[in-house]
Amino acid sequence: MMPQEQYTHHRSTMPSSEGPQVYKVGIYGWRKRCLYFFVLLLMILILVNLAMTIWILKVMNFTIDGMGNLRITEKGLKLEGDSEFLQPLYAKEIQSRPGNALYFKSARNVTVNILNDQTKVLTRLITGPKAVEAYGQRFEVKTVSGKLLFSADSNEVVVGAERLRVLGAEGTVFPKSIETPNVRADPFKELRLESPTRSLVMEAPKGVEINAEAGNLEATCRTELRLESKDGEIKLDAAKIKLPRLPHGSYTPTGTRQKVFELCVCANGRLFLSQAGTGSTCQINTSVCL
């Protein structure tokens, strides 16, 4: 069989009474115009796409080291300026530039979670608009040298500073007991221990010492003031000891009135004054002890 081209050429060379026939090869008419239009449109789109890509690279500041404020270094990622994270950030270490501060800003709160291998939260720190909350087994505050200043856990709260200062105008309220070796006020300030509705008890296995070196010492109560020593003694050491409101006995000795009184003690421990005589007058005024 002849090839198609040879067969066509052979037919065209054969004499014919109808005349030579011409066969056109290609795309003509409206198809050609549509093809050129689509080719032109594709070129325009390619140019626009290339221009937009170059513009985005220029605006986002793409370089070999990174993009925008983000730089890729040997030690990790480096951010310059303000950065916004819309999803959780996982990092081994976050630090600022030497000499600059590190700020965390949020419209609601900032939460820092410490997770274990099973992604269980061990420690959580939440800083919100109303409070700062910390969740963990133990909370500690230390100095740069490692000295403990404050610690708190489920069993106790420890203040390791040399001095605990409370600046509130109403003082400090302890609903239960307090254990301390020393309670002292600031220089030239008053120290007041007060229990408005209940009793105030001070106990120590080796004694309680109350000392006011540059001022007065005052103890007031509504019902009873009791000083008790089980194994030792109670010592009132002062240049003058005054008991101005002791009751007076009704005994009046004969003769001139004296301004000398005798201090008497009842069996129930009550004290009273009796005008002194040649002998003891305490037994005459036993009605005071009733």
Please describe what this structure looks like.
By secondary structure, this protein is an alpha+beta fold. The protein is rod-shaped, with a radius of gyration of 51 Å. It has 2 helices and 11 strands, in the order ααβββββββββββ. A hairpin with a 2-residue loop joins β1 and β2.
Topology readout:
Elements: H1 4-13, H2 30-59, E1 66-67, E2 70-72, E3 77-79, E4 110-115, E5 121-127, E6 132-135, E7 139-142, E8 148-152, E9 157-159, E10 261-265, E11 271-275
Antiparallel strand pairs: 1-2, 2-3, 4-5, 5-6, 7-8, 8-9, 10-11
Strand order of the largest sheet: 1-2-3
Instruction: Give the helix proportion (percent range).
Output: 10-25%
Could you state the order of secondary-structure elements as H and E? Answer: HHEEEEEEEEEEE
Low-confidence stretches: 1-12
Q: Helix count?
A: 2
Radius of gyration, Cα only, in angstroms? 51 Å
Q: What integer is the average pLDDT?
A: 78
Report the oligomer.
Answer: single chain
How far apart lie the N and C ends? 155 Å
Give the amount of beta strand, in percent: 15-25%
Membrane topology: Single-pass type II membrane protein
Pfam families: Sarcoglycan_1
Protein name: Sarcoglycan delta
InterPro entries: Sarcoglycan (IPR006875), Sarcoglycan_gamma/delta/zeta (IPR039972)
Short structural summary:
With 290 residues, the chain is an alpha+beta fold.
Question: Which structural traits does this protein have?
Answer:
disordered N terminus, rod-shaped, 290 residues, three-stranded antiparallel beta sheet, glycoprotein, cell membrane, alpha+beta
